[in-house]
Structure formats: C-alpha cells, structure tokens
User: Fold these one by one.
Assistant:
Number 1:
Amino acid sequence: MPELPEVETIKLGLQKKIVGLTIEKVEVLAPKTFIGDARSIQGKKVLNVWRKAKILGIDLGSLSLLFHLKMTGQLIYDDGKRFIGGHPTPDMRDEMPNRSTRVIFEFSDGSKLYFNDQRRFGWIRIVGEIGDLFKKLGPEPLEKDFTWQNFKNNLLKHKSMPVKVALMDQSVVSGIGNIYANEACFNAKIDPRIRVSQLSDSEWQSLHRGVRKALKDGIKYGGASRAHFVDAQGHKGYFLDYAYVYGKDKHPCRKCGTEIKKIQLGGRGTYLCPKCQKVVE
DNA sequence: TTAAATGTTTAAAT
DNA sequence: CATTTAAACATTTA
C-alpha cells in the first residue's frame, strides 16, 4: 500500500529511533516473506535508514536490509511507545504480534520492530552491494533535478495510455501509486483519462507541479496512513481525511462542491471531480 | 455473495 | 518487436 510519502514517513521515524542500535534477534514467522539468512544480520549495527522509491533500506554496513510493503505492509516500532507506518488497520494498537505479523526484529535496547502484512505481498530481503539493483526505477520526483521536461520525456514512453495509469509506472517516475496519481491529476486539473500524447506543455507543467504537491502534502501529513505515535492513552484519526479525491466517491469536491465521481482505469479505482478536472471525451 | 483494497510481475492481447 | 491490458498473487473487509 504505501507509496513514496508513507515510506518516507517511516524512514524519518525509524531514523530517529533505531540508528545506532544493534539487531539482537530476528524472528521469521513467515519464511516466504524473508529472503536471505536472518542469522547473518544478528549482531549488526544500524548505521542509517534510507528510502528509494517505495523501498525502505536499513544500512548495516556490509549488508543492507530492504523492505517493500506492497499493498498491506505495516511497520510497528515499539520501545514502550509505538511508531506505526504503512497500511492502517484497526488492530495496529492492539497486542503484538498479531496474526498478520510476519517478521519480528529485536534490538539491543529491548525495543522491537514488527513487520505485519495482511496480504503477504510484501517482502524483506538481505543484500550486499546495492549496485544496479534500482536501475529499472525512474527518477525521484522530489529531487531538484526532476524537471517538467524530464518528466514529460519519461512519461511519453506511454503516449497512448491514460495519464493516470502512466504515472504509476515505476520505471518512469519513482514512488507514485494509486492515491497520489489520483491526487496529482486533481491538483493539475487534468482528467485522469486523457492520453499522455494529448497533453499540452502547460498541462505538462501543471501535472509536474501537481505530482510534487501531492507527494509533498503526503509527507507533510505523515503519509496517507498518517504514521503516528501511539501512547498508552491511544490515538485517533489517521486516515485519508486530507485527500481531495481519493476515496471521496460521492463526497462534494473541496474546491467546487461538485460530487466526486469514481470510475475504473487500468483496473484501479480512479476518482475525479468532473468540474475541476477538464473533462475529456 | 461479490467487489475492492495505498503494488508489482508475468502473461496475453493489440 | 513494442506497447497496452488483464490476470495473478493472498487476505480481509465493506
């Protein structure tokens, strides 16, 4: 589930928590989820936590631990309080491990990191050198060298695709998934169904801006799942209440009041405001 | 009961 | 051959 902003949020949270700690123990409850020899990272110290596209990395020196949360992956760090990121579920404040827990890491100070994944699409793997592992991934959309011309050239690889579908191709741009593709189109006032080749340069510029705004807003709000700290008192509210269109089927548009419409595009739920987003066809 | 869910890969169809 | 679309993966919840 998590897209770039969700993974970025987890990265920022874990950086503050686990850098400097040593991995004391790794408990693999779902062997298919963990690729590599878990024993090889025991006793290793966490040097850094990073992100590339939707992949979270933990730098252990000679080795790196990579995480991909796919649709329903969730990371819960517990050191007395809890820091949670990824797929939001009602049971994330309850007893851990639960039935979705796949891997448990225990650190030198007794704190624990739980990797939960309801649908089991996600994975954790141990790698040596990163090398050209990410060669197929497109540029990071929030880097300063990501210009609108750059964006246009990459996306034109799919000139006959609906623009929203093309946005989700990871080899074109890194980190955009279904939520932010929808939000980016809304921000740019562009109908998600319009074909890539139909866009004018001014639309390319506003789509480029729209993508970056959606992702930055996502990070600002702590991700769509609102990764957050949970204390003994518990916490409320972590959902997508900030989104303009995603999941807002039949809600009034926050900009103009028109009812948000849901359609299917490339097999995925797609949301748009029929008034704000210049309708095509 | 059927449909859909924040992703990626592979197969099938243009 | 290149590009686009659909299916598969596995599970839960509306």
Note: The CA atoms of residues 163 and 196 of chain A lie 5 Å apart.
Number 2:
Amino acid sequence: MEYRQRAAVWQPGQAVEIEGEGRTPRKRRAILAAATEVFLQHGYLGASMDEVAAKAGVSKQTVYKQFENKERLFAEIVLGTSDQLMDGLAQAYADTLEGATDPREALRALARRLLDSLTAGSVLQLRRLVIAEADRFPEVCGAWFNTGFERSLEALGEALTRLTERGLLRELDDPTLAAYQFAGLVMYKPMNRAMFAGTHAGPVAGELDQLADQAVDVFLAAYGT
Amino acid sequence: MEYRQRAAVWQPGQAVEIEGEGRTPRKRRAILAAATEVFLQHGYLGASMDEVAAKAGVSKQTVYKQFENKERLFAEIVLGTSDQLMDGLAQAYADTLEGATDPREALRALARRLLDSLTAGSVLQLRRLVIAEADRFPEVCGAWFNTGFERSLEALGEALTRLTERGLLRELDDPTLAAYQFAGLVMYKPMNRAMFAGTHAGPVAGELDQLADQAVDVFLAAYGT
DNA sequence: GAAGAACTGGACTGTCTAGTATGATTCCCG
DNA sequence: CGGGAATCATACTAGACAGTCCAGTTCTTC
C-alpha cells in the first residue's frame, strides 16, 4: 500500500514561515492561506472578508492592500490551485505507469492513487467551489478547468500512449478520450457520491480497491493487448 | 434523431394554471416555480426572497405563509425535483433498452439520450446547486442523491440485467456497478466540462454522438456477448 | 537610529436581506 | 351576496457584510 503513504495531491496551504522573507510577502501568504480555507468552507458568498483577515492574523486594511477586492482574491486562490493539482497528478502518472511491466497492476495502482487523492476533503471542497461559481465567474472557473482538469487528462493520455509504445496497451486512436474513459470508469461513482453527499460519509476502504480493480478490468477488455 | 425530439427529462416548472384549482394552491405552485428559477440561477445565498415573491407575482407575506422560511423552501424545491428526474430517466431506459434486439444500437441510443437530457441547462444548474449546498444542507442534498441519483443508476442496472436475461449482454456480477461504469464512460467528459465551464460553451452536436459510440464500444468489449 | 513604509484596530458608510407587522383589498364559499 | 379568510402593498427591524478612513504603532532599510 505504498501509494497511501504519499503526500496528498494538494492541501490548502498553511502559512509556512519562510526564512528571510519580508513582512509583506509573509502576510500575503497568510492571507492566501486563510482565504483558501474560508472560501472552501463557506463558498464565495458565504465567505466574509472579516473572517479572512481574522484567520490570517492581519488587519482588513492589509487584505485590501494586497488584493483589490473579494473577486480578485477569489480568482487568485482558484487559479493558484490548478498548478499544484496538476503537478500532483503528473507525479501519480509517473510513479505508477512509467517503468511498469504489468499493465493491469500499473493501472490498478494508478486508479487507487487517483481515488485516494481526489476524494480527499480539500480537493472535493475545491471542486464544489469551482462548480458552484462557474456561472458567477466563468473566465476564472473556465481557466481552472482548462489548465487544471483538461490538461491533466491530456497528460494521462500521453502516459497511456507511452504504455502503448511499450506494447502494454493496444493502439489508441484518441489517447485523451481513452484517458477520460479510464477516469470515468474509476471515478464516476465515488466522485458523484462525494460531491453530492456532504463532506461526511467517507468511502469504505475496501470499496475503493474493488472499484479500481473492476474499472481496470473493463478498460483492459477494450484496450488491453 | 428521434430521441432529440423527446421532452426534456426535467424543466423548471412554469406556474401552469390548473382548472378548478383554488387560489391558495395556485399561488403555492407559482411560488415553487419562481423559487426554483431563482435558486437555480443565483444559488442559495444569492437568492433573495423578495425576488422569489416578485417573480411569483405574490406578496412576500404569502411566501412566508406557505413556507416557513428560506431553508424549507429550498428543501422543498430540491426534493421535489428528484422524482421528476427519476421518472424521466426510467422512461429513457424503457424507450431505448426494453424490446431492443441489437445491444450496440440500443446502448448508443441510450447514451445519446442521456447526454442530451443531462447536459440541458436546467439539469446542470440543479446539479450545481445541490453540489454547492451539500455541506450546508447535508440531509436534503444527501436525500436528493440517494433517492434521485443512486436510485436511477440502480434502475439502469436492472435494465441491463434484463438485457442479460435476453442474451444480449454477458452475465453481470454487479449490475449497479456496470451501470455506473456505463454512465462514467458516457458522461464523465461532457459532464465535467459542463459543470466546470459555465452554462455557456455548449458541446458540439457531433462530438456527443462520437462520445456515445466510443463509450459503448468500450462497454461492450467488457460486457458484450 | 531615523525616516518612511507597512500594518493595526476600530469605527463608519452604504447597501442588502430575512423575516415581521399592519391596514386595506380581493377572493372564495356557503 | 355577505362574511371570513387569504392576499396585497408597504414599511419596518435587526443584522450582516464589502469596502473606506484615520490615528497610532511596528517593522524594515539605509
């Protein structure tokens, strides 16, 4: 179960002290970390700038010195997460697929890792936030989707293509589509449950493993050599 | 393209006049219809009871006579939709699968119909609303998920089992899981796009057909006879 | 160590909203 | 057609919140 020990794909940043950092950037980071927490927990309208300032240990004036207004702060937070999520997923693909010899085992490991990572509380709350505000902030949420979500599935498509080149999968007409199909097989059920049924009701551990295995069975029935 | 002509799975109800209906129930229906529109458009916190009353053509007092407060009105609306959605989906299964002779054609028709129905604007907005408020109203949103979403996939599993019994599909160990896998193959990509990228950016028509066909190919590679 | 920038705390404005109150008006039913 | 209930228009209360302002304090930097 080596994959369960790994760092989560993304966690809302703590305001870590960085030695030699000036006061202003330190406070800016504290504000971003606090705002992330507050927005994820309460949503855009439910979040209050007073709470952000209090949680950051900063005066309201400082918040408004760093960020023009609530909308900009929201945008900064949402966009700031997509890089980190992407990096985490790219790492997951590399760890599980590159160098693999048995495609079934490799895909199972990937599926389990995706399930673990993406049903974590903070990732779910981020997804909820972006979905909820998709109409209020179409550019920001659209950008998050394009640069984070879609891009990470294209990357998975490329990783699958490398499996094909090594003779571990059948030829793929559309690698990105195959990636979406894999993701859909693995995550449609647990992701919907997690999104709709509050943050409570975590999945049973064994259920996720079973889900992963069965998704891989279907995927390989279509794409295995 | 016969399936494109069909009635949508669900549309936010207009306040239809029902002959012989008294004044009070008529106004109650008007309020529910107006509130549905307002909540879907602005979310729970963004919705104002004044706007609901105005849109329903009713005084605020009447709203509060029919519904104790904003929370109850929200709950009533969310729960009221799940039955209707379910009925629409059950109809889709029946129309496309029962009586089919060619499983590939039947599943393609079902996939296209699901794609058309569930990427419609109002259905998306409803999903967004429920997801966004899952933490604020865990019982209501959880109930919506259990009685609407999960139940409809169990129904699909039963419909698939009937295909099995008629020799059109391989034996299914877990019909509900197979249903989730089918849904995931068909909808993971377009549903995520639709959820994250505002209500704008409708999908290209041909893309959905292609998606449906390729999802069915994978599904039948695993479950076809 | 001094000057200037950044920060603090708290008060303040303007606006919005859930929910209540009231007296006049309209509708329904017997 | 008349009486009682439902509804209307409107005003009101109480609280929340985004964003601003200011006088005093702390940090950084030269």
Note: The first helix of chain A runs from residue 2 to 5.
